[in-house]
Amino acid sequence: MRLSIAPWLALSSTLLADSALAFPSPADQNPLHPPAAPSTPWPAKPQWRKLSNFLIESVWPQRKEYCQKAPKSPSPDLARNAPPASLLARYGGDVVLRFNISSTDDAQSLAVAADTLLLDIWEFSHDWVDVRLSMDIVAPLLGLLPASLQNAHTPLLRERDLAQAIYETYPASRQAQDQSLFSGHVSSPFTLRTPSLSLKPRDDPEGNAFFADYQPLSVIEPWIRLMSSLFTTHVRRVVVGKSHQGRDIIGLRVGVHPTNSDKPQPKRKTILIMGGLHAREWVSTSTVNYIAYSLITAYGKTPAITTLLETFDFVLLPTVNPDGYAYTWETDRLWRKNRQQTSFRFCQGIDLDRNFDYEWDGLTTTADNPCSESYAGSTPFEAVESRALADWAKNESEHNNVEWVGLLDLHSYSQAILYPYSFSCSIEPPGLENLEELAFGLQKAIRVSHGHNYEAMAACEGNFAVSKSGASKKNLFSRMEAAGGSALDYFHHDLGVRYSYQIKLRDRGTYGFLLPRGEIVPTGKEIYDAVLYFAEFLRGVYEIDSINDMDVKDESMMKSESEDGSAEVEPESTTEDAVQIPETSDVDEEAAEDSLRQDLRR
């Protein structure tokens, strides 16, 4: 029997409204540099968590046999650079548990309990589910689960403290190890590596300081402007629209168009690569930027890539959810949704990847709760950003001579290549065999590049299970969360993008969303190789003239394969470089450097 949370949500709304004057919500602030002496002391835990704990203990009293089963929180290594008090207050009592699922009943029980307790499901697959929760919620959770799950869980993050793992993803957490780090605001890590901003490093992204750390919007935005101003022959800055808070949703269009032609030009075949729909998935943003930089700097130097950019346009959008992404840098590293207000005053945000207008299922129990991490909104396209992206893509195809031929929607984590449909396994997409063929090709390209295995499957797999009434596909039900309204399904079905994929990047759960900075470049490399394979495959599908200079896939992978054919994982780069201007550029370097410094000071 499913437990309803409506009564205690109503009670919580009343209690929180009454307590609003006593505990005002803190303004967004940098979690690494909190105010030294706030005028009003904040509670160690958010108001919602305190009230939630009280209600949980009232409704589900903790039984003694469960109280001893909560894993011990590992203490931070005091010898390392310890996180500040603000991070410890927010995350210090949290843990990420992986539950091993062995049956449909286990999956259903965990889904009901997670929905009832408003838990944060990080990721899930056929046989495991990763859940982040407060230590004081572990016992009530186990009390709702069957005996088969009582001992079927283990802590992730290598049993490290969650606050420490979060702190290590911010560039400023390396201050003790890197004397070149500045002591100012974390929103300017572009200058972390050297006091003076040099615009003359190597072409290779591996030696570029921009990819040595995750970067905030305050660095990504001027970097995008810099790329479009330095490489005017084949790069343009694009603005998809505005976010809920008024930020531009920006990206880069990379490609070379014919000039001085009097003939009407056919629609330009265009591949869309985007990341950051979910704010906390930082590696998706860094990977989109890595792909953009690699394509941009290879033009005119690598014949095969030059030919590709004369054949296709690549539109690269690193942060489709800029408000949420900024919030992960300013306040909550693990924020997932956008920052839009919902019908419930104390629960903000809509899951952009559940709000597109194809098979939207926001009225289901798992998606209609504004406090849920996968809240789908009250109507399709209620989220400003999902509406802006859809309108822009449709306008490009209808009015700007664009033919969308491919979509790569990057997420993290679990290492999977997913093709339509997400909303259901009971319906097969048209051209399924071709989708599977390309998915397996992408899988191989990644494995050859760095030796990592990505699973290729339909997006619905892992989230759907067969009901007890029969094994027919018509008897499938959602295991963990509603899966309709995805960008993947919308672009494939409504916009007719035949080859649409969602790629879930590294890793498989050791670090989850908190992938170390040393994985930025290897992840970027393997997905860049997959992108080149993707474009070469589409060239064959659309019977575009062969690239005679050299095979794109072989060229891109030569550097990463060892002599015996096995792949090698490159170590983390420590080169203290910054963004490069090619020697052949006609741009005034001094003016560009001054302009970038001014942007960063803002």
UniProtKB/TrEMBL annotation:
The keyword Disulfide bond is annotated on this UniProt entry: yes
UniProt cross-references to InterPro entries, sorted A to Z: CARBOXYPEPT_ZN_1, Peptidase_M14
Domain Peptidase M14: 213-538
Domain of life: Eukaryota
Biased composition (Acidic residues): 563-575
Protein name: Inactive metallocarboxypeptidase ECM14
Family: Belongs to the peptidase M14 family.
Keywords from the UniProt entry: Cell wall biogenesis/degradation, Disulfide bond, Metal-binding, Secreted, Signal, Vacuole, Zinc
Gene3D superfamilies: Zn peptidases
Annotated region (Disordered), positions in chain: 555-602
Biological function: Inactive carboxypeptidase that may play a role in cell wall organization and biogenesis.
SUPFAM superfamilies: Zn-dependent exopeptidases
Subcellular location(s) of the protein: Secreted; Vacuole
Obligatory cofactor(s): Zn(2+)
GO biological process, one term: cell wall organization
Annotated GO CC locations: extracellular region; vacuole
GO MF annotation terms: metallocarboxypeptidase activity; zinc ion binding
Organism name: Acrodontium crateriforme
Signal peptide: 1-22
